[in-house]
Amino acid sequence: MTLDEYQRGAERTINASLSAEHRLLDAAAGLAEEAGETLAIVRKHLFQQRPLDRERLRAELGDALWCLTIVAASAGLSLDEVASANIAKLRAR
């Protein structure tokens, strides 16, 4: 699956009752929330000696990816474009 294919699939699950501004805010807030849940999994593994819960981590990363995708789409950006620009920035370092 390509990033653009994922984005098209994710966009089909957008809450149609939200305005464009609310969709953007909801997805950005969700991204922060999912990042926090990801951090909690990693922190418990590293500092509380719990086994790394890879299934839960996969689920949280998937949720974060969905939120990231909807933020990008709401701003008129494609994930492919975001990823390509990021790689170019990293190579320039």
Summarize the structure.
The protein is mainly alpha-helical.
Structural features, described:
The protein is mostly helical and 93 residues long. The mean pLDDT is 97. The chain is globular and about 40 Å long. Helix 1 (3-11) crosses helix 3 and helix 2 (20-47) packs antiparallel against helix 3. It is built from 4 helices and no strands.
Question: What is the mean predicted local confidence, pLDDT?
Answer: 97
Order of helices and strands: HHHH
Radius of gyration: 15 Å
What is the general shape? Answer: globular
Low-confidence residue ranges: none
Task: Draw up the topology in text.
Blueprint: H1 3-11, H2 20-47, H3 54-74, H4 79-92
Helix pairs in contact: 1-3, 2-3
What key phrases describe this protein's structure?
globular, single chain, 93 residues, mainly alpha, 77% helix, 4 helices
